[in-house]
């Protein structure tokens, strides 16, 4: 009986000691003085994955105690998908408390970016929605170059994101920062530009940047998918013939007058975006085009037209040669 009592006391001491040791592991600071770091719980991640990720990113020395503690507390379903800022010295208990803490629901705002808006117009609109200042947005899209998207591979390092901020309706948090909104637009663009479209661009010997640059012009010059296909073909012909694009939209991009047709003096402005004075494509996109305009440029409709104009009644008139175009201008515009 005496031996049994001694054995029982030893077992109790071992269990007690183990429990004390276990709690010490839960409460002791993590041995990593790095400081604050972002940590993200993605949709569908379980405790095993969260624990391993915390370990890999330097928040846990040993995932075992984290998993046991979560299991004992029955907190497996309490983890909230979100982005957190955790300190690398936090204890296991502090980490679990932070990752399972109910947060007030963030207010969302619906924004609508119109097809054909340029980056400056988007910046003004977002400022009007009280998300952030125009200057903050412009500075971000001008200086940020850490985007990991294949479609941006051909974009010059000095160019901003004009052409790639896909026009659509988005739900964003009211306290969003420019990178949040831009990220959504770029992901949307990435989804819209299918693998087949990318392959066809490559087969045609073109770059995505060239296609988006021309699509941004077609977006501003023309409406209707078939009309846009014809205009895209006209522009591709002119590029092959080393004939100036003579796009009013590129001149309006310079002057920002918002008029349908620039005047003669406008077309003489010395600017690389003036496609009356310069041959080839302008240095970059002049707007953020819709997928319709992009597809029209990838899949143009071949015709024998070389010129076009839009009447005051918004009718599109195509011409086969310069004289026919002059005659149509006299008939419909003069």
Notes on the structure:
- This protein has 334 residues and is mainly α.
- It has 3 domains: 13-100, Endolytic murein transglycosylase (Dna Ligase, domain 1), CATH 3.30.1490; 108-192, no CATH class; 201-303, no CATH class.
- It has 13 helices and 6 strands.
- Helix 2 (47-56) packs antiparallel against helix 3, helix 9 crosses helix 10 and helix 10 crosses helix 12 (291-298).
Q: State which percent range the strand residues make up.
A: 5-15%
Number of domains in the coordinates?
3
Beta-strand segment tally: 6
Instruction: Work out the helix count.
Output: 13
* Helix/strand class: mainly alpha
Cα separation of the termini: 118 Å
Note the run of SSEs as H and E: HEHHEHEHHEHHHHHHEEH
Please estimate the helix content: 40-55%
What would a concise description of this structure say?
The protein is mainly alpha-helical and 334 residues long.
Task: Outline the secondary-structure elements.
Blueprint: H1 2-27, E1 36-41, H2 47-56, H3 63-73, E2 82-87, H4 92-100, E3 108-112, H5 119-128, H6 134-143, E4 169-173, H7 178-192, H8 195-203, H9 208-221, H10 225-240, H11 248-255, H12 291-298, E5 307-310, E6 316-319, H13 322-332
Antiparallel strand pairs: 1-2, 3-4, 5-6
Descriptive keywords:
334 residues; 9% strand; Dna Ligase, domain 1; 3 domains; mainly alpha; two-stranded antiparallel sheet
């Amino acid at each position: 009986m005496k031996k049994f009592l001694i054995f029982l006391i030893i077992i109790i001491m071992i269990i007690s000691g183990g429990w004390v040791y276990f709690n010490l592991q839960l409460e002791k600071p993590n041995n990593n003085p790095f400081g604050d770091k972002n940590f993200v719980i993605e949709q569908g991640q379980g405790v095993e994955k969260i624990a391993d990720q915390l370990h890999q990113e330097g928040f846990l020395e040993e995932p075992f105690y984290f998993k046991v503690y979560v299991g004992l507390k029955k907190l497996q379903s309490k983890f909230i998908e979100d982005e957190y800022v955790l300190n690398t010295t936090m204890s296991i208990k502090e980490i679990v408390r932070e990752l399972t803490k109910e947060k007030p629901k963030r207010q969302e705002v619906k924004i609508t970016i119109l097809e054909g808006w340029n980056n400056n117009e988007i910046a003004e609109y977002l400022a009007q929605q009280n998300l952030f200042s125009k200057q903050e947005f412009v500075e971000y899209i001008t200086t940020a170059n850490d985007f990991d998207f294949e479609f941006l591979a051909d974009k010059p390092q000095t160019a901003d994101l004009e052409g790639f901020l896909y026009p659509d309706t988005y739900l964003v948090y009211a306290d969003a920062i420019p990178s949040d909104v831009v990220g959504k637009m770029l992901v949307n663009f990435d989804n819209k530009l299918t693998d087949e479209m990318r392959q066809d661009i490559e087969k045609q010997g073109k770059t995505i940047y060239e296609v988006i640059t021309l699509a941004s012009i077609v977006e501003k010059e023309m409406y209707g998918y078939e009309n846009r296909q014809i205009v895209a073909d006209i522009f591709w012909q002119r590029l092959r013939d080393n004939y100036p694009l003579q796009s009013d939209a590129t001149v309006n991009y310079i002057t920002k007058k918002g008029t349908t047709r620039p005047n003669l003096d406008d077309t003489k402005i010395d600017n690389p975006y003036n496609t009356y004075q310069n041959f080839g494509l302008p240095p970059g996109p002049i707007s953020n085009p819709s997928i319709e305009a992009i597809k029209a440029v990838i899949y143009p409709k071949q015709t024998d037209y070389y010129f076009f104009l839009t009447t005051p009644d918004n009718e599109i008139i195509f011409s086969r040669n310069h004289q026919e175009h002059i005659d149509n201008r006299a008939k419909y515009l003069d």
